[in-house]
Fold:
Amino acid sequence: MTTKPMMPEREADLLRAPGNLPGHWSYSQLNTYETCPQMFYLERLMKEPPLTINGGGIGGTAGHRSVEICEAEKLWEDDSNIDLMGELFVANFREATRVEQEKHPDTPIRWGGRKTKNFPDGENEYWWEGPAGGPLMMKRYAARRRDWAEQGMSVIEGGTEMRVMTEVPYTVEEPQIVDGEAVMVEVAKSKPIIAYIDIVLLVRIGPNGIERGIADWKFGSLMSCKPRQMVVYSYALKQSHDWDITFGDIMWMRGKDVDTQVRRVEIPAELRDQVPAWYGEMAKSIDAGIFGPKPNTLCASCAVRDRCSWGRHISEKELSDE
Ligand code: SF4
Structure:
């Protein structure tokens, strides 16, 4: 009788990535790794085709693209542009749908959200294009944008969709021969990260004079609003521009009122300075080839579920209960 653990060949393969790791990380890649290393491996490294297209992702793309145009054209300034902004969203939503379907032909779209009497499929294209979907979120965007102007906050020149690249240092222990003996030595490494400061960089006149902050528009579920994203972006701006970002506004466009739409995160320097430690831990795990499944609440909607050693055991019943 053998005591050797049984490990199917394919799963053993998943423990080590091929030599095609990207040369830099983005916040979203590392967020995926933190959510589930195997999802990161299958989606981001192996580029496995998805089981389904993420309908919420299409809505988010349309929202961001629309906000970008509204910023460039200053459409938010005038209330009479509300209908135009709604139409802009719909046009961008259709374009984003077309692009996704062209990328993944014959792949169904998985719509998220609650299934209701009017929308038994959940938040489908009719919901997103209808008055309670994208156009309403654009209306909220314009209202909040005007609030900022009234509060004396403005977008820094070039601060829309700002691309920032910086190196994050970390250390790993590696075996080396020193004086004829094998010892573990701490080796300094670094990894470039690219951050897209989602929409705007703000300046406000606070009690301490000028303060800089960042903002990020969110069109998906509350789960997509992660304070740590703001902290990572503030770290990137400190490194690249030597700017102290003291707050991040997560602008959740599904919120029904100002209080739920604007979620301000204060970013003390001590918190920002923890980013290398956090990234370093992940970089070490990725370098070590740790890509095992990490079951979580997103498993049922995971686009690579069928290729995951955990996800492929999720039954139809469990899926329909979600
Ligand atoms: S099904 Fe769950 S455990 Fe498997 S890859 Fe997807 S998120 Fe990870």
User: Anything to note?
Assistant: The longest strand covers residues 162-178.
